[in-house]
Amino acid sequence: MKAIRLLLLGSLLLLQTGCWNRVELNDIAIISATGVDWENGKWVLTNQIVIPKAISGQAGGGRTAAVNVFSSTGDNFRIAISKASQESSRRLYFSHNQIVIIGQEAARKGVGPLLEAYLRNHDSRETVDVFLSKGTARLMLEQLIPLEQIPGAAIQRMIVNEEMSSSSYRQMTIHHVLMDLLGHTKATSIPGLALAGSGESTDRVDMLSQTSTPSKVRLSELGLVYGDKLVGWIGEEQSKGVMWLTNHVDKTTVAFACTAGGKGRQGSSARVLHSVTKVKPQQQDGKWVMKVNIEAQGTLLEYDCGGDLMKPEEIWEVERLVEERIASIVTDGWEVVRKHKVDVLGFGTLIYKHHPKTWKVIERNWKEEFPQTEIELNVNMKLSSTGMSGKSFKEAQKKPGL
Amino acid sequence: MQQQFGKFQLAILIIVFLIGSTPLFELGIPAKQDAWIAMLVAAAAGLLLTVVYLTLHKRAPNAGLGELYKYHFGRYIGGFIAIVHALWFAYESMRNVRDVGELTTMALLSFTPKWIIMFLILAVAAYTASKGVEVLARIIQLLFPIVILSYFIVILLVFFSGLVKVNQLLPIMENGPMPILKAAFPNLLSFPFAQMVVFLVLFGHVSEKKSISKVTYWSQIGVSIFLVFMNALILCVLGPELAELTALPLLHVLQLVRLANFLERLDVVVTLLLFIGLFVKIATLYIASVLTASMATGWSYRALVFPIGILIYAASFLEPNNTYHIWIGLDVTLKIAPLFQIALPLVMLVVGIRKKYRSAALDGAQGT
Fold first, then answer.
1. How many domains does chain A have?
2. What are the backbone dihedrals phi and psi of residue A47, each rounded to the nearest 5 degrees, phi first?
3. Where's the Spore germination protein N-terminal domain (chain A) (predicted)?
């Protein structure tokens, strides 16, 4: 009897090994980046897969590229992925995917199907970063990037670096995009990638042996998405304005000129170390006015103007110049977003949160009402330090006799 | 002599049972960003129901649910109701078994067949059931620290990764109180709060009779606050739109956690909580079913464990797919549940114990 019991218990163990769902490392192709394009009425899905052999060992890359890029085509995403098995020896494994690049054409067609695929499948992580691309997504995925072995991971680190040091663009994950597009304004903004340089693709390892590559992937322009379609691009400076307005600036550098009104060469710059933007919607004479209050704090990096910075009133003067400059960046950004009639700034959401009853009335016409909105800016910059020197070099050089 | 457990074990049992799988889902989401308020309202109503249950329990401190039915409605009607209620407990247990099957294949082990997943968890529950109430209480006591620690870690990580945006809860009561009440009653009251009715079966097994009310109230209040908090937390991270879309909101939230480039993919924690929570529900309802059925039929407890287990396992295959499973859960189960959770206890409260059983009910009290 006891023997039978033990046998039964032992056989239970056989059921608990979890072999049904085993994933063997040498059966999967780990994907580091995905690209989506729209060509000839079909989705083209490009995968960048990591070649483990090329990144292992001390050599650090060596003669072969660490990734391989291939595409498959289909009427929807998942069928394209399943077709990949016709040209791949291993099962595609998406859990370590770092970025998704959406080609311009695909983005104009609509990103809805992509988001749908992400929501429905548990192997697609929503912490994946999203980018738009001026060229095809495939072209971006083919580029090798100096310093990093896996381009997908490199681009992901690029946006993190950008967000932390100059905040012209913001890291947009699938989750952020979903939240924005499912929200009340149905609009979002996604950073774009472009190939800068000669246009010759940096897609061979030996090209990295030179000190300068003919072209490189860089962040460029901000794509505005309404509904699920790309409707327009705005430039880097305007993108900064958008970031200021949406409270996504933390650290950035602001270049400013010496004279009030911002005329002349911007020879000085200040580093913003911390900033908070608060927006409050208010109704005035049948119009919506957004009270934007920006509190920034930072230090002086480079100074090209006159005056003695050892005096508090001179510092106030400099602070005022920086404030003016920030205000003009924000206004520029606002004007261009207004022209596109896409509320990527979340103004509608703010009205909904604070005046839900009024929002119900205007929600329908928000696309028309949004451009009518005005903003009222109040920028407050505090310079906490002028760095390790006082007067500017130019000032210090001036001799009393001359 | 029936099996007994102490007041702390009762407290832990109430806490873990009510937590169950509840925080994994965003209940009350028809009220949009006010889901947490709906939860709060339902929790308050749930507490009132517990007052009713405890009043009934005090009339016959040693009785289980089956005996209570007998004392109130007589041997035949009471016995019949007890059997029906025992079947209902088995049905609710089966729903949780099926939940384990569906959620595991959906979110974790997509190639593993459901029958084996459901068989494994039910086998553990059946083993617990065969050992009785005392063992159930002790198992839950063992699992309790894991549950608390896991939730603690989850909450901490979600806060640290800066995902919580409190303004997602605005505007409060956008469309007045009606949507909140509609979400709260009867759905939120029935699940999870009014599932406390299962404790009418278990109260009789608590050794420290005097503290039952106090312990029950406090643990239920505590766990209600926790559930409302978890509900609001999920809303703050996902917002009402996304919270409504996803099948497993807490899993979704944890997948978004990314700390210091290495603390990510914390799905394991959610999986652990899912299994523990659902296991506790399955085992408790299973045992409640067996106890009630045994009282009503007079058959021994041990003789009923196996047949009811088979019944639960077989019934868990009846629904053809997940959509059907959820549809029955929301459109059918929640319509019938109030009969057992609210109507029958209230009728008992009004009818009062029949004269000929009065001494029997109180005798039991002196017996311990």
1. 2
2. -115, 140
3. 21-193
Going by C-alpha positions, the residue among B356, B300, B309, B328 that lies closest to residue B126 is B309
Classify residue B209 by its DSSP letter: G
ipTM of the complex: 0.81
> Mutual orientation of helices B114-131 and B301-315 as an angle, nearest 10°?
160
Flag whether residue A125 sits within 8 Å of chain B, measured between CB atoms.
Answer: yes
Find, among A291, A292, A273, the residue nearest to A283 by Cα.
A291
Residue A80 counted as domain residue: yes
* Residue A182, min C-alpha distance to chain B (Å): 6
A119 and B256: CB-CB below 8 Å?
no
Q: Which of A210, A234, A258 is the last residue of a domain?
A: A234
Structural domain for A43, as ranges = 25-234
Nearest CA in chain B to A19: B112
Shortest alpha-carbon distance between residue A11 and chain B (Å): 12
Nearest to A183 among B113, B241, B256 (CB): B241
- The answer to the question of residue A3 being in a domain is no
How many structural domains is chain B composed of?
1
Same domain, yes or no: A301 and A228: no
Please give the structure tokens belonging to residue A282: 């208010």
CATH number where B34 lies: 1.20.1740.10
- Nearest CB to B255; choose among A12, A18, A125: A125
pLDDT digits (tens, 9 = 90+) for B221-263: 999 999 999 999 999 999 998 898 888 888 888 888 877 666 7
Within a domain: A11: no
